[in-house]
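Exercise: predict the fold of this chain.
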Amino acid sequence: MITAQFSGNKIYSSSNVAFSLYEKSRFGEKKQNKIEYSIVEALFLDLQGKMQIFSGKKQLDSDSLIKKAKRLDKRIEIKLPVFTDLRKRGYIIKTALKFGADFRVYKKGVKPGQDHALWLLYPVKESESHSWYDFAAKNRVAHSARKNLLIGVLDDEDDVSYYEVSWLKP
C-alpha cells in the first residue's frame, strides 16, 4: 500500500512501493526523491485500495478526497470514470496540460519516454453540448501535437464510449 501526502494541490509519496509502482505501471511522475501524482491518479489508486492519502497526520477517506478534488478540478467527476476505464483496459494515461488537453494516452505496452502518446483525450459528458468550434479546436490541438484526438463520452450510467478523430488527406 502506498502512503501519500496531500499538500496544497499536490499529492506525493516517497515510499518504495510508490517507486515500484511507477516503474511497473507509470503511476505518478518522478520528482527528485518522490513520486508526484495527479489528482485523478491518486483518486484512482485510493478507490482501488492501493493508496492511503494523508493531509498532515489525518488520513483522508474517499469522500473527503473527492471533495478536495472537486475544489481543484471542476471536471473530476467526468475525468475519473474515463481515466478508470482506460487504465483498467491496460492503457497508460498521463495529464496533458502542456498540450491543452486533459490526458495523453499511450498505446498498450508503451511507457512514457519509450514512445510518444497515441492520443490526446478529452472526456465529455453525453448530456453536454459542444460547438463545432470547440471540436475543431480540440482536433487542431491534437493534430499539431502529432496525435489523434480521442473523445471519451461518459453517459448517465457511467459507461464510456470512445471516438477517435484523425486528419485525412484525400
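Check your answer against the key: The first strand starts at residue 2 and ends at 7.
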